[in-house]
Amino acid sequence: MATTLPARLDFATEQTFPWVTLAKRMPVIATQVVNEVHLLLSEIVKDRPTTDASVEEPKEVKDARKSLEDLSRLKYEMQTNKVITDINDGGSDQKEWNEYIALHRIERSKPELHWFESSWLLAECYMYRRISSALMGSTLMASFDPFEASKKNSYHASMVSITGLGEFITCALNVQSDDQTHLKSTFAALVQFALWGNKSDLSLHTTMDSEMVKRLQVDSSNKVAELKENILCDHTEQLWKRLCDVKTKSDAVRVDIVLDNAGFELFTDLCLAHWLITKNFAATIHFHTKVCPWFVSDTSNADFKWVVAELQQSSTACLKDLGIQFQSHLDNSRWVLKSNPFWTYPHEFPLIAQNAPQLKADMDTAHLILLKGDLNYRKLLSDRAWQHDADFSVVTNGFSNTSYCSLRTLKANLVCGLNREVADQTQKKHPDGSWMTTGTFGIIQGHFTN
Predict the structure, then answer these.
(1) β-strand 231-234 against 284-289: which pairing, if any?
(2) What are the structural domains of the chain?
(3) pLDDT in tens, 132-182
(4) Which runs of E-coded beta strand occur in 148-283?
(5) For 404, which DSSP code?
(6) Residue 371, strand partner residues
(7) Phi, psi of 13 (to 5 degrees)
(8) Residue 352 in contact with residue 399, Cβ under 8 Å?
(9) Distance between CA 217 and CA 122 in Å, rounded?
(10) Neighbours of 205 (CB within 10 A)
(11) Phi, psi for 229 (deg, rounded to 5)
């Protein structure tokens, strides 16, 4: 990491992308959570008498009402720029969270840190951690995912894209050939499917409907080819070389995928993982999921298993067959699901050794790590305003001793590792900076070891 760090992205300037996120998008998400919890609570109490004041509500109902109150308070505090308070729910990650909040108070010379005085990464992660805190206080709500319905709706709205990719990978795997040109081109296409699958992010598009889902998705290999010119940094060649190199040295290659969104993006990740296993480029794939509802559409273990189960019930033959094969990978431990609270910390990834040493030690044994999506990229870059041509390996130093690569469509105003001419030309074409925030452009960007 460079000795002089650039500033963290924050809310100091009104109408910037981070400021709009906190002022407008995040309150909408908080309102949606309040509404979902209110609906659930209404279902719980609908058969109970409401007029008899002598009948005391059971404790679990009282706790559920308190969860709703806590969520409403969270929205109020956020909208009125109240103080970011310590986490005090007894969660296993409470210590790490409060130490990080204290660090930010010191860094910003604030004895009390208000929402709009904090960094963007801290404030956004903190909102989701507070949602989790509100829910865990109730036995009726502790396992409730307020984003479950929207994730499932997004999946069902994506069936055209899912079917298109399902047909593509089925055809590709039916070609009985070890021709390197064919293998390489199929791999490149699947990597780009996984990249552009990241376009549809429910935390960015807070009012996404089925038509918007379809517009955002890449549903054919022809469309993938058309979008290649929108990849501002493309390390597909290095990715391919890394996989070929480790394949010649080991018959137990492990690839880790740090997942991002559920729904269509998850399906693109599963197809890539399936191809790697089937073509013997990997013996095991370790998928890293979130331990709690996170950034609306992030993948949990439950989301992962639900998608695999849905595929197995599909009336489309290729999808049903893929679902059966995916389940076989899970049953035979070729695919392994892992959840670690570090992925829902606010901490930047170069700090993983201090905050999750066992996770780092485990992931360092992988031959390759793929990190999906915008939030993982922001954390790799410590959510700081790096020069666009800053060296990616230097900026992310400390994350892992093995090779890692980010597949990310740009939906936040930070990026590094670009060719200076490419960055300047893109900025010239989009002087308002929208090229960094709309998901129009993508990067396949990595650090590769020998």
Answers:
(1) unpaired
(2) 17-136 (1.20.930.60), 167-447 (3.40.50.10880)
(3) 999 999 999 999 999 999 999 999 999 999 999 999 999 999 988 788 999
(4) 231-234, 254-258
(5) E
(6) 258, 406
(7) -110, 125
(8) yes
(9) 29
(10) 19
(11) -70, -15
Residue 109 is classified by DSSP as T
Contact 302, 354 (CB under 8 A): no
The CA distance from 202 to 329, in Å, is 28
427 burial via Cβ count (<10 Å: 0-12, 13-18, 19+) = middle
Evaluate whether 220 touches 433 at the Cβ level (below 8 Å): no
Neighbours of 328 (CB within 10 A): 12
CB 301 within 8 A of CB 337: yes
Distance in angstroms (rounded) separating the CA atoms of residues 176 and 311: 24
pLDDT reported for residue 45 = 84
Stretches where the chain sits below pLDDT 70 are 1-3, 47-55, 200-221
Q: Identify the residue whose tokens are 């890692």.
A: 404
Sign of CA dihedral 393, 394, 397, 401: positive
Q: How far is CA 10 from CA 13, 41, 97, 414, in A?
A: 8, 36, 18, 12
Distances (CA, A) of 114 to 11, 56, 164, 385: 11, 38, 47, 21
**How many CA atoms lie within 13 Å of 190's alpha carbon, on the beta-carbon side?**
27
Helices 26-45 and 59-79, axial angle in degrees (round to 10): 160
pLDDT digits over 50-72, tens only?
556 666 788 889 999 999 999 99
Q: What is the pTM of this model?
A: 0.94
Residue in this structure with the two tokens 């047909």, named with its chain if needed: 167
Cα distance between residue 120 and residue 18, in whole Å: 6
- Whether 310 contacts 264, CB under 8 Å: no
Task: Give the pLDDT confidence score for residue 206 in this predicted structure.
Answer: 46
Q: For residue range 184-232, list pLDDT tens digits in order.
A: 999 999 999 999 998 865 555 444 444 544 454 555 567 777 889 999 9
Query: Of 291, 24, 349, 260, whose CA–CA distance to 132 is shortest?
Result: 291
DSSP assignment letter at 202: T
What size, in residues, is the chain? 450
57 contacts 63 by C-beta, under 8 angstroms = no
* Cα dihedral 37→259→122→423 (10° resolution): -130
N-to-C CA span, the chain: 21
Which residues, 6+ apart, have CB-to-CB distance to 274 below 8 Å?
Answer: 169, 322, 325, 326, 329
